[in-house]
Amino acid sequence: MLLAKQRHRRAMLPLHTRVWGYIQDATVGYGYRPLRAGLWLTTLLACGALFFSTHPPAPLEAEKAPPFNAVVYTLDLLVPITAFGQDVAFAPRSTGQWLAYALTAAGWILATTVAAGISRAINRQ
């Protein structure tokens, strides 16, 4: 019911806000379907790991850097509250740098959405 209310309200908003509403609806259902965030996280993790396994970033300090792991590096970029040490030990270049920025932003957006969904679920009970 609340999801339908959000969708109805979206129709009356300005274009730029309506576009953001469509993105929220498609990705996490306005926070009412936080499990979608898990699917997005898994998809982004797979894409990032695939890219960084074929284009590994250079270590900032070769003698101090841990062994590079594309999955852990991508997870370190995506999940804002973890610190595996991979994201601060390596520096991607060109396309990899933009992908790292996008993964970091997506991780913060998904984490915020999941937190909102959890708090909404707690308030309902």
The number of strands is 2
Sheet with the most strands? 2 strands, antiparallel
What's the tally of helices? 6
Terminal Cα separation, in Å? Answer: 16 Å
**H/E topology pattern:** HHHEHHEH
Helix content: 55-70%
Biggest β-sheet: strands ordered side by side in the sheet: 1-2
Return the structural class: mainly alpha
How much β-strand is present in the residues?
under 5%
Which word captures the global form?
A: elongated
Say what oligomer this is. Answer: single chain
The residue-averaged pLDDT reads 80
Key descriptive features of the protein:
two-stranded antiparallel sheet; 125 residues; single chain; 6 helices; mainly alpha
What does this structure look like?
This protein has a two-stranded antiparallel ribbon with strand order 1-2. 69% of the residues lie in helices and 3% in strands. It is elongated and about 55 Å long. It has helices at 2-10, 15-28, 35-54, 70-78, 86-89, 95-124, and strands at 58-59, 90-91. α3 packs across α4 (70-78) and α3 (35-54) packs antiparallel against α6 (95-124). By secondary structure, the protein is mainly alpha-helical. The model has no long low-confidence stretch (mean pLDDT 80). The longest helix has 30 residues, at 95-124.
Q: What order do the helices and strands come in, and which of them pair?
A:
Layout: H1 2-10, H2 15-28, H3 35-54, E1 58-59, H4 70-78, H5 86-89, E2 90-91, H6 95-124
Antiparallel strand pairs: 1-2
Helix pairs in contact: 3-4, 3-6
